[in-house]
Amino acid sequence: MTVIALLGPCLRILDNPALYHALGQASNRGGSVIALVVEDPTQRRPGAAFTWWTRKSLPLLRSQLERLHVPLLCLQASYPAVAKVLSQQELIEKVHVNRRWGGTTAEQDASFAQILEQAHIAVQTYTAHTVHEPWDVKTGQGGYYRVYTPFSKKLLSIQPRLLDEPAPQAAGSADGDVEALVHALHASDAVHVLDWDRPAEPYDPAWAKKFPWKPGAEQAAHVLRTFLDDLLPDYQTGRDLPYEKATSSLSPYLAHGEISPHRVLYETRKARSHFRSSQNKAAVASADTFERELFWREFNYHLLYHEPDLAERNHNPRFDSFPWSWPAKATQLQQTRQAAAQPSDSESAALEARAALECWKSGHTGIPLVDAGMRQLWETGWMHNRVRMVVASLLTKNLRIHWRVGEAWFWDTLVDADPASNPGNWQWVAGTGADAAPFFRIFHPARQADRFDEHCAYVRAWVPELRI
Ligand SMILES: Cc1cc2nc3c(=O)[nH]c(=O)nc-3n(C[C@H](O)[C@H](O)[C@H](O)COP(=O)(O)OP(=O)(O)OC[C@H]3O[C@@H](n4cnc5c(N)ncnc54)[C@H](O)[C@@H]3O)c2cc1C
């Protein structure tokens, strides 16, 4: 008997309900477990920096799973295509799935379950990527929250499900079953078996050479521990200063599911009770603030669940007719040049927007804080939150370029690119989002620099040609 664990967005062993329940079932019944990671081409394609991370993480996950006798298969296929192959495998008894959100995943996942259930293979799904079930958090009227503060208050009143499951036990060997499944997967035209879990092929594209990150669940646990011990007590005072190492740096680990949000919340609350008993009020306030940041992540997933097209559509439809600029595409540019005719007003605006966008992306706007942020993003795959808000405000409110253009650049360049938090925050800054910064609130880059980078330490680090 074989049990499948479809890991979804969770590249970890601990606090992984699909894996945990698959192993439990297999060990009770003397069966084996096969783990699947599926990149689904029917959904938004992961960005380049995110993929760089995934390709470093999967070989690590594979060797951890091997210790549990669980082989890992990495596939590129729609969920229904995977279900069709699984449904033809006689030995498979049940599929345990960590849920995913956004895009058309709800429809795809329903069809996945239907195909398997028709073949008498049971499917069990779990929420593993957020602390709360998105549908558990409801307003008094039974709807969903569009404003953060009441949402976060509501979270405080709901006891989170903390995944304190014991470390999973090894399963029986799955050798023969894997071979049969791999054979069937290769035989399917709709499924590609990827070699992303193989460590032999280092994946270090030139643009990512300087990335300072060490992916993997082990490192995630280390990053959390270091943050709790060294940085959490002063989080509240330091978190807005981009030159300080004051925030947790957990976002890419959370985005890849290498650490569970449950674990981060649980450990934060434990640290807070310790601060309380030692009457360290400032540290208690810091832990409260950090918890609220974790709730922003929950809030964005809450929105994504209810608005799966969050990356494509204004949350607030009043902005649908707003005259955003859309930068001209490269081909459009060429055509205009070849025609050697005077561009129309709208073509000129699109060309201007394109030139401005290129300056923004490459960190050559001439605005020090913005350039520093965009260069930090390019060189490290990450940008400090305060600076993310400033660069996004410049793009959407000063250049009036559509937030989707900036969101797409972040999606491609952030190692923590997240289907909920990226569009959620872009919409928040642009003013189109839930509980958003109002349209008249513009982050003034020079004033922000005065307040949060008083001695220009951050700007100097990323824009060395400036002699300030
Ligand atoms: C325009 C824009 C785009 C963003 N895109 C992303 C994204 O794609 N992925 C992403 O994880 N975060 C995104 N953020 C939120 C935030 O900038 C990052 O989560 C944060 O900088 C990560 O650093 P950290 O882990 O050190 O954060 P910490 O300050 O240590 O916070 C701890 C955790 O709380 C969560 N968090 C903190 N702030 C936010 C927030 N505003 N919204 C949602 N979750 C939050 C993150 O999971 C973070 O890891 C974006 C913010 C803006 C303004």
CATH architecture classification name of the largest domain:
Orthogonal Bundle
| CATH homologous superfamily placement of the largest domain | DNA Cyclobutane Dipyrimidine Photolyase, subunit A, domain 3
Task: Give the overall average pLDDT.
Answer: 92
The helix count comes to 19
How many individual β-strands? 6
CATH topology of the largest domain: DNA Cyclobutane Dipyrimidine Photolyase, subunit A, domain 3
Give me the Rg, rounded: 23 Å
What helical percentage do the residues reach?
40-55%
CATH class category label of the largest domain: Mainly Alpha
Total of domains: 3
Q: What sequence of helices (H) and strands (E) makes up the elements?
A: EHEHEHEHEHHEHHHHHHHHHHHHH
Uncertain spans, ≥5 residues at pLDDT below 50? Answer: none
What hetero molecules are bound to the protein chains?
flavin-adenine dinucleotide
Taking the sheet with the most strands, its summary is:
6 strands, mixed
Organism: Malassezia caprae
GO molecular function: deoxyribodipyrimidine photo-lyase activity; DNA binding; FAD binding
Cofactor: FAD
Keywords: Chromophore, FAD, Flavoprotein
Features:
6 strands, 468 residues, 6-stranded mixed sheet, binds flavin-adenine dinucleotide, alpha/beta, globular, Rossmann fold
